[in-house]
Amino acid sequence: MRIYADDTFYQESYLEGRQPVIRTGFSFYVREASRILDQYTFGRLNELDEVPDDVKLCCCELAELGYRQDERERQTEGGKTSEKVGTYSVTYASEQTAEQETASGIRCILAKWLGNTGLLYQGV
Questions:
Q1: Which residues contact 2 (CB under 8 A, 6 or more apart)?
Q2: Domains of the chain: total
Q3: Does residue 120 form part of some domain?
Q4: Is 122 a member of any domain?
Q5: For the segment 16-66, what is each residue's pLDDT rounded down to a tens digit?
Q6: HEC states along 30-86?
Q7: Domain-located, residue 42
Q8: Domain range spanning residue 74?
Q9: Helices (H) and strands (E) in the chain, counts
Q10: pTM over cut 0.85
Q11: Is residue 2 part of a domain?
């Protein structure tokens, strides 16, 4: 399996001096992002000799999305998304809703970085 971005690219080219979102486990999240890229590009990226910067940037943003999703899940164990004390109120999010939000986020990121490249094209 090909990994489309590395920590150096993430720090220097994607973040451009900003603080990193992914604090630990970058290699795990970038591997998962690369797997998503392979899925949505139908393996076309493996055929390229050189990975375009747009693919690397997309990979970094997908990795951050995965990291944020994991952080959100850790903070909302049990599905609780909010709680109000005065006149007690609790809000729960379903697992299905969270999965739909993640899938929507993935599609938006892919369209943003790869929409004009032809890599997402499903036809022949």
A1: 34, 38, 45, 46, 51
A2: 1
A3: no
A4: no
A5: 999 999 989 999 999 999 999 999 999 999 999 999 999 999 999 999 999
A6: HHHHHHHHHHHCCCHHHHCCCCCHHHHHHHHHHHHHHHHHHHHHHHCHHHEEEEECC
A7: yes
A8: 7-114
A9: 4, 2
A10: no
A11: no
